[in-house]
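[job 4471] stage=fold_predict status=RUNNING
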Amino acid sequence: MKVVITSQGTSLDSPVDPRFGRANNFLLVDTETLEITAHENRAASEPQGAGTQAARTVIMLGPGAVITGHIGPRALAVFQAAGLGVFLVEKGTVREALEAYKAGRLPQANQANA
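[job 4471] inference complete, writing structure tokens
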């Protein structure tokens, strides 16, 4: 399965970016092989609607879930409509967030927290 994790960098050892819509990068990570592809978040500089635009971009990457720190109501609604779970992580590296997700330790977002 592949998941998208918001990241401040482009590697598994990069810090998780706690922002969804304004995150620097989206890392698409294969949970089995740890293969990653980094995608710059072009919506981050939008004056309005960054979260919604970023959510649409992430959906196009085809993940089974999204991991981030904070997510707004509009972006969460886009993911819910697409049937994608959003899981929340406070801090740490992309690798640590992935391990916590795989171990079932990340809470799923049922409402916006940004």
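[job 4471] summary: Residues 50-61 form the longest helix (12 residues).
[job 4471] exit 0
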